[in-house]
């Protein structure tokens, strides 16, 4: 199955409120054609609202949205049924009264080629045998694939997905995630998906936009986001951290782990933010092992040093038990640190 | 929740409907104060107060007994090892197919000389059979035919209530009756009081049963007065209208609905052993069914058979023939079906305004429609009848027309469809709508391809309820139906009044049979969707 030319999405200074309650303010986002962008944020941050604004299911209070260079909201208004944007809802929203094939056919307007296109869409999602079934008789994973096939069948320029994996069992989620990831890569379609799960955002997104309180705080590749978060909140939201009090001066910060390299412009009291894999343990030292959590592929060890707590990721065979005395060392090149305001 | 605003056209439709539904009640109030006579002096005379107290007394008694009977039957069929529970669950709602006046007539005539029961009594040497008249008769008949209004919601609630609640109370040391009082009763109180309210409203608006039982309640007094003394009829109507409104308002404010526990998983049913109570329980359930269904059916069959046999033996011929029965049945069916369709057309836009858009105008119209449920049919009939006499050209046009009859039926019964229609609208999730929009469907296509098919089962059930109620309606049909448009109920009622029992029996059987078939197809078969 071929797709229509992927289209980019540009959002400028978007503001939106429900009943005078602001949900988004001054939000900007640029999505390149063919790119997959994850909107990552805690619940209530406005990420689903942003998705609905792009689809045209809500009208923004202020600001503009361009899809494929065309102005669709702000100044002009293109209703959802004429935006050529596909959307997969969190609960999949399959039409309960239509068969799988008719669900997929719903958005295809050209009747001449409808059957061929439906078959193609079903085959692409491995649903060829299920065309006559009713949605209620399908498993969660199958329903998910029907929802995707239905959204993709009219060949949208942009695909929007609202928490696409949250309704699946844990065991199924990993599998479906990889399947969708591969699909996006193969089709080269522009996709924007909402998630509150950092793993999903990192795995499927080419870039991740972290949202908080109606604003995007950082848009970056997963690697840049993980290693160079803009603030402590973002660092904590995209992964585990340990926070130490420190004092920064000309490129180094003094803290309970000694003198660590930090960004040179930092001055005065700072919070030093360390990832667990930037730390390592050796026997005998000033710190005490508090808890050991074994994950199979590695071990997370909770350590107390003075009145500060640290989390250290060790290999699967780390020999420590609760109560051991250990020494913690920083093994990274440069530590993240943020000035206290 | 959908954030978009309701379309303007829909709001206009909502306002127009609110006015239409409120019209009969408002007109009645207005006429009360403009009909010339001093309304206040009429309101508080013996002529009005005595029927009022009779209505209150009857309604209280019937509500109490129907609430107890309905709850007991519901509990027995959902929570105990009563034999043949599944059968009882199917047959216990059936008495709803009887209009109460047919039930009343059945009891009266059966106990009269020549009736089935009278023959039975005299064959065992009892020559004085009790006569069923007045308060006792009206109470008995209304209880026997109204208990399903309580039984149905309470049984549904009990089935939904997780048994683990009761078991927790039992494990904590409560006895069974104490558990019922402290745990079950608070949980079913919402359904119980809603059902009891239905019984109460039904009783105060009932005309047929009290008329045949010769018990002078407000409705009967209105009917006797409306031609000869309109001002008195208006005063009586106002009392009835205000009383009905107060009762509904009281139920709303008293019944602070407790947070109800719900479970959607199939939970393990609790089943209590009746042991030594088994025989009394069977007598209660079986006796109820016997008196509320088997006995009246037997009476109707007896009369019909009598009539047919008598004619064949060359006795007095029946005053009706097949064509007359068919005519009345066709009139009843067509009027009811049209009413069902019109009621749906009236109710669906309002349900969409409320359920989808949470629109203020929608909520206003919704409460007006719900309020009309408290307006007894005889008041709607009276109001429209007098309005057409006064409304000049428009009145002349509508007087004795099908349009005014359908309008009266719709005002009376559309509220029955409102609740189900609202549920049907909310089954169409906003997401379904939104996904259809992103797939390129405009508003009209969304309505046709998503809303209508998804709501269909609910709407059929809602329309079905209206059709069934319209078929049984008596006072509106008597007062508003065009001349030369006999319905089954008016024909049956007329035959009873003139003591043509055989004719009444035949047509009552036709009515009961038709509504039983319709109940099955339209309501019971789809009850899962409610």
Element string of chain A (H = helix, E = strand): EEEHEEEEHHHEHEHEEHHEEEEEEEEE
- State the name of the first-level CATH class of the largest domain in chain A: Alpha Beta
The total count of strands of chain A amounts to: 20
Q: How many DSSP-defined strands of chain B?
A: 0
What is the gyration radius of chain A calculated from CA atoms? 24 Å
Largest interface: chains, residues each: A-B, 29 and 19 residues
Describe the sheet with the most strands of chain B: none
What is the terminal separation of chain A in angstroms?
54 Å
**Numbering strands along the chain, what is their spatial order in the largest sheet of chain A?**
7-8-9-3-10-11
Task: Specify the structural class of chain B.
Answer: mainly alpha
Shape of chain B: globular
Q: What Rg of chain B do the Cα atoms give?
A: 24 Å
Provide a count of the helices of chain A: 8
Number of domains of chain A: 2
Would you spell out the secondary-structure blueprint of this structure?
The complex is a heterodimer of chains A (341) and B (530).
Chain A: E1 9-18, E2 21-31, E3 36-40, H1 47-55, E4 62-67, E5 70-74, E6 76-77, E7 85-88, H2 100-105, H3 114-124, H4 140-152, E8 158-162, H5 170-187, E9 190-195, H6 198-204, E10 207-212, E11 215-220, H7 222-227, H8 232-237, E12 242-249, E13 252-255, E14 258-261, E15 268-274, E16 279-294, E17 299-305, E18 308-314, E19 325-330, E20 336-339
Parallel strand pairs in A: 3-9, 3-10, 7-8, 8-9
Antiparallel strand pairs in A: 1-2, 1-4, 4-5, 5-6, 10-11, 12-13, 12-15, 13-14, 15-20, 16-17, 16-19, 17-18
Chain B: H1 8-34, H2 39-43, H3 46-79, H4 85-91, H5 100-111, H6 116-123, H7 134-160, H8 163-171, H9 176-205, H10 208-212, H11 218-225, H12 230-254, H13 278-312, H14 322-355, H15 360-372, H16 377-390, H17 392-398, H18 402-427, H19 430-438, H20 443-472, H21 475-480, H22 488-497, H23 501-523
Helix pairs in contact in B: 1-12, 1-14, 1-15, 1-16, 3-4, 3-7, 3-9, 3-11, 5-7, 5-13, 7-9, 8-9, 9-12, 11-12, 13-23, 14-15, 14-18, 14-20, 15-18, 16-17, 16-18, 18-20, 19-20, 20-23, 22-23
């Amino acid at each position: 199955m071929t797709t229509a030319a992927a289209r980019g999405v540009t959002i400028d200074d978007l503001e939106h409120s429900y009943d005078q309650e602001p949900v988004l303010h001054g939000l900007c986002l640029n999505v390149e054609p063919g790119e997959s962008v994850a909107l990552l944020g805690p619940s209530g941050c406005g990420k689903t609202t942003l998705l609905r604004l792009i689809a045209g299911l809500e009208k923004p209070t202020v600001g503009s949205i361009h899809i494929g260079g065309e102005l669709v909201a702000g100044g002009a208004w293109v209703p959802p049924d004429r935006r050529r944007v596909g959307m997969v809802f969190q609960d999949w929203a399959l039409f309960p009264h239509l068969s799988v094939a008719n669900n997929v056919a719903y958005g295809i307007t050209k009747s001449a080629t409808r059957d061929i296109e439906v078959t193609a869409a079903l085959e692409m999602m491995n649903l060829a045998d299920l065309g006559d079934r009713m949605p209620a008789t399908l498993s969660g994973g199958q329903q998910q694939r029907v929802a995707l096939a239905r959204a993709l069948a009219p060949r949208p320029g942009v695909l929007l997905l609202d928490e696409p994996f949250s309704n699946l069992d844990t065991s199924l989620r990993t599998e479906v995630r990889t399947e969708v990831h591969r699909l996006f890569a193969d089709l080269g379609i522009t996709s924007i998906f909402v998630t509150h799960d950092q793993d999903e955002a990192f795995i499927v997104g080419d870039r991740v936009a972290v949202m908080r309180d109606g604003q995007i705080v950082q848009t970056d590749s997963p690697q840049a986001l993980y290693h160079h978060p803009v603030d402590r909140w973002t660092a904590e939201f995209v992964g585990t951290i340990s926070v130490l009090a420190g004092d920064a001066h000309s490129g180094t910060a003094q803290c309970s782990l000694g003198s660590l390299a930090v960004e040179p412009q930092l001055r005065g009291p700072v919070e030093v933010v360390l990832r667990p894999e930037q730390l390592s343990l050796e026997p005998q030292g000033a710190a005490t092992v508090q808890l050991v959590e074994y994950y199979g592929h590695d071990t997370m060890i909770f350590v107390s040093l003075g009145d500060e707590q640290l989390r250290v990721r060790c290999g699967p065979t780390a020999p420590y038990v609760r109560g051991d005395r250990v020494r913690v060392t920083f093994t990274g090149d440069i530590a993240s640190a943020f000035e206290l305001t | 929740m959908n954030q978009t605003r309701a379309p303007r056209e829909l709001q206009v439709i909502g306002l127009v409907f609110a006015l239409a539904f409120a019209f009969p009640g408002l007109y009645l109030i207005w006429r009360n104060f403009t009909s010339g006579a001093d309304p206040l002096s009429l309101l508080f005379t013996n002529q009005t107060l005595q029927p009022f107290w009779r209505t209150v007394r009857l309604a209280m008694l019937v509500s109490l007994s129907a609430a107890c009977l309905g709850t007991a039957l519901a509990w027995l069929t959902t929570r105990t090892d009563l034999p043949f529970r599944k059968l009882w669950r199917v047959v216990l709602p059936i008495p709803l197919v009887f209009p109460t006046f047919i039930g009343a007539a059945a009891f009266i005539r059966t106990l009269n000389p020549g009736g089935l029961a009278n023959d039975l009594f005299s064959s065992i040497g009892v020559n004085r059979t009790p006569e069923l008249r007045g308060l006792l008769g009206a109470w008995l008949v209304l209880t026997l035919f109204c208990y399903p209004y309580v039984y149905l919601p309470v049984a549904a609630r009990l089935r939904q209530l997780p048994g683990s609640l009761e078991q927790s109370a039992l494990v904590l040391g409560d006895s069974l009756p104490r558990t019922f009082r402290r745990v079950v009763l608070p949980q079913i109180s919402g359904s119980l009081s809603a059902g009891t309210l239905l019984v109460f409203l039904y009783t105060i608006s009932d005309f047929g049963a009290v008329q045949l039982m010769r018990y002078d309640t407000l409705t009967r007094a209105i009917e006797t007065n409306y031609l000869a003394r309109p001002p008195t009829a208006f005063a009586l109507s106002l009392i009835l209208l205000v009383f009905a409104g107060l009762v509904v308002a009281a139920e709303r404010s008293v019944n602070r609905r407790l947070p109800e526990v719900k479970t959607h998983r199939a939970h393990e049913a609790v089943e209590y052993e009746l042991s030594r109570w088994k025989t009394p329980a069977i007598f209660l359930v079986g006796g109820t069914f016997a008196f509320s269904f088997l006995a009246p059916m037997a009476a109707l069959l007896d009369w019909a058979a009598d009539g047919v046999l008598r004619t064949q033996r060359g006795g007095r011929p029946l005053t009706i023939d097949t064509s007359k029965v068919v005519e009345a049945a066709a009139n009843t069916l067509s009027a009811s079906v049209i009413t069902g369709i019109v009621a749906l057309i009236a109710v669906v836009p309002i349900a969409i305004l409320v359920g989808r858009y949470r629109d203020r105008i929608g909520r206003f119209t919704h409460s007006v429609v719900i309020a009309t449920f408290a307006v007894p049919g005889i008041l709607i009939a009276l109001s429209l009848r007098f309005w057409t006499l006064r409304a000049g050209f428009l009145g002349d046009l509508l007087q004795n027309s099908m349009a005014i009859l359908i309008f009266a039926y719709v005002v009376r019964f559309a509220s029955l469809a409102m609740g189900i229609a609202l549920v049907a609208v909310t089954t169409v999730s906003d997401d379904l709508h939104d996904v259809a929009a992103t797939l390129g469907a405009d508003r009209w296509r969304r309505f046709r391809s998503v809303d209508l098919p998804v709501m269909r089962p609910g709407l059929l059930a809602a329309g079905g309820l209206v059709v069934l109620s319209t078929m049984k309606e008596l006072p509106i049909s008597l007062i508003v139906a065009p001349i030369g448009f006999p319905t089954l109920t008016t024909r049956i009622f007329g035959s009873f009044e003139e003591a043509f029992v055989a004719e009444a029996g035949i047509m009552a059987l036709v009515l009961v049979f038709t509504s039983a078939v319709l109940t099955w197809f339209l309501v019971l078969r789809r009850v899962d969707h409610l």
